[in-house]
Amino acid sequence: MTSSGDATALQPSKIPPPKSRILGTGHYTPARVVPNTELEKVVETTDSWITERTGIRRRHLAADGEVTSDMAAAAGRRALEAAGLNVADLDMIIVGTISGDTPVPSCAVHVQRKLGADDIPAFDISAACAGFVYGVTIADQFIATGAATCVLVIGVELLSRILDWQDRTTCVLFGDGAGAVVLGPAKGDGRGILSTRIFTDGSLAESLAIPAGGTAEPLTEERLAAKRNKVQMIGQDIFRVAIKNLTSASTHALKAAGLTSAELDWVVAHQANLRIINQVSSRLGFPLERFILNIEEYGNTSSASIPIALDEAVRDGRIQPGQTVLLCALGAGISWGAAMVRM
Ligand code: ACO
C-alpha cells in the first residue's frame, strides 16, 4: 500500500463520477450542558487551561438512563426526515462508536430495534473518532456495487460514562452526542461522495485505549480499581501524528477527487483540539474561517463530531447544495481518514 505521505501516487488518471450521495443529515445532542467552570469543581483544572489548550468551553452530557442507541436513533430519525425517507427505505445501518450500549450485541442492533427497521444488516465500526469517515467509506462501497441503495451512517458516542472523572487529562476533553447521514445512489449530476481514504497505524495502539474489558485484560476487581476499563490517552502522542496524518489524508482525498484546496468550499474536521485544526488549516493552505467549528460547544464527541458539525452547517445554510466539503478525522488505533463530498 502506498504510504500516507505519498499523495500523488494515489491520484487516479481518470476521476470516476460519484456513486453515492448524501440525501439527508441529522444530529442529536443531550440537553445537559456542562461548562468548563463546572469541571473546576471535579478535577484540578481551570476554564482557561481547557479553553487555551483545546478550544473547548462546554460539552453536552447524556442524562442518567439515556443510552448510546437513544442518541443514535434520534440522530438517525432526523437524517431520514431531512432526506424525506422512512425507516422502511433503509437497507443498511452502520454505526461508528466505541461506547455502545453493550459489549455484545453491537450498538447498531439496538439502533435498528429502536428505529423499527426490519431484517436489514446493522453493524458497528470501531474506529473511534474516525468511525464516521470509515462508515461513509463502507456505505459508499456498498452503494457503488449496487449491494445497497439506502444506508444510514451514524457516528455516536457516550464517552462520559467510560471516562475516569478523576483523570484531568481526559475527562475535560469529551462530550456526548450523535450525528447521522443517509446515503443513496448518486444521480449523475456530479454531487456525491467524490473520494474517501482511510488508514490505520496499529503501532500507536496504546496511545489511546480502554485497556481492560476484552480478552487481553478480562475485568477483575484489581483492574476495575485501577480504572483499566476507562479511556486512557497519551495526548501528546496523538497530537503529533494528528496534524501530519489529517493533512496527508486530506491531500489524498482531494487528489483522488481531482480537486485542490483552492476548489474547496468547507472543511469539517474532527473536533478534538482547535490547535490541531489550526495546524491542519495552515498546512492545507485553507483558511480557518472555512472550517466548520463547534468544539467550543460540544468538546470532542469522537465519531459524532463530524456528522454533528456537518448537520449544523447544512441546517443553518452555511453548507449549500453543490458545494465541496472535505471531511477528515483521526482517533484511537490510530485510525484516520478523509472524504471529499459534493453536497
Ligand atoms: N487542566 C490543567 N492542566 C492539565 C490538564 C487539565 N485538564 N490536563 C493536563 N494538564 C497539564 C499536564 O499535567 C501537564 O502538566 P506538566 O507540564 O506539569 O506535566 C500540562 O498540562 C501539559 O500537558 P500536555 O499533555 O503536554 O498538554 P497538551 O498541550 O498536549 O494538551 C491535549 C493535552 C489537549 C490532550 C492534547 O495533547 C491533544 O489534544 N491531543 C490529541 C487528542 C486527540 O486528538 N485524540 C484523538 C481523538 S479522541 C478518540 O479517538 C476517542
Counted up, domains total 2
Choose one word for the global shape: globular
Radius of gyration: 19 Å
* Mean pLDDT value: 95
The residue ranges in which pLDDT falls below 50 over 5 or more consecutive positions are 1-12
Q: Could you name the CATH topology of the largest domain?
A: Peroxisomal Thiolase, Chain A, domain 1
Strand order of the largest sheet: 1-7-6-4-5
Strand content: 15-25%
The count of β-strands is 13
Task: Supply the CATH architecture of the largest domain.
Answer: 3-Layer(aba) Sandwich
Name the structural class: alpha/beta
List the bound ligands: acetyl coenzyme *A
The name of the CATH superfamily of the largest domain reads Thiolase/Chalcone synthase
Descriptive account of the structure:
With 343 residues, this protein is α/β, with parallel strands linked by helices. It has 2 domains: 20-185, Thiolase/Chalcone synthase (Peroxisomal Thiolase, Chain A, domain 1), CATH 3.40.47.10; 191-342, 3-Layer(aba) Sandwich (Peroxisomal Thiolase, Chain A, domain 1). It is built from 11 helices and 13 strands. The strands form 4 sheets. Strands 1-7-6-4-5 form a 5-stranded mixed β-sheet, sandwiched between helices. It has a 4-stranded mixed β-sheet with strand order 8-13-12-11. The radius of gyration is 19 Å and the shape is globular. The protein binds acetyl coenzyme *A (ACO).
